[in-house]
Fold this protein.
Amino acid sequence: MRLEGKSALITGASQGIGRATALAFARAGANVAINHYPDAEDAHRRNAEAVAQEVKNLGRQALVIGADVAQEEPSAAMVAQAIEEFGCLDILVNNAGILRDATLRNLTRQQWDEVLDVNLGSMFNCAKPAAIHMREREAGSIVNIASVIGLTGNFGQTNYAAAKAGAIGFTKSLAREMARYGVRVNAVAPGFMDTDMTRTIDPEIKENIRKQIPLGHFGTAEDIADAILFLVSDEARYITGEVLSVNGGWYM
Ligand code: NAP
């Protein structure tokens, strides 16, 4: 699968699945804009710059953009900057995501809003300006990162499950709107992956989950990156509005 001459923007790409996707795209020939959360200490920026250096080492252009994707204006400015610097935007991956787990009884309105704003609001904030640009060019591909939890629900994750189920509905609706312009919109629903997001799960609970995965182990960030690479590539040219489950068989 090749992405020669293509330019991509990946949200939350300073680590985990976003980072692996940036590197998979660069290996396939794409220039990549790497978004990170603009923290005061610049720790996230340093991580994003390290990813950018890895992209450059692969012979591609890299752009680091700090922007809180939960906010509309910085997200729109980020998309505009990527278009300006690369000349156009062929691919958007809405990957940024957070957890604020608690049973509904204990969940605060703030935790609800944070998860909805980052995991779902970001899709509106980034996909809207990107889709307008792609519509004008009559080309482009958007991949939204959902979750198996958006399909199954999970104890203590009403906020996260609602956001990820919302991401699936958003993907299918936008796919219908954009198909006539030659723009494809798909989602990837990862299962349990070995990234920072799952490293805090209690080891005993983790082992119980692992036993329920038919393929016998947690996935890697690269497993998801390869699925995203497929969906944005020409090999997936007849696929739109699809939710690709990558979960080792945990949910079929
Ligand atoms: P991760 O390592 O925690 O990465 C999440 C990324 O999101 C980080 O790079 C973070 O950037 C970024 N981010 C968070 N809030 C942001 C904001 N407001 N603005 C910009 N960036 C923000 O987790 P991951 O496992 O790679 O997760 C990537 C995606 O996969 C998420 O959408 C997650 O829900 C989904 N997913 C993961 C799993 C799993 O098992 N790991 C399963 C299903 C779905 P900074 O580092 O700069 O803060």
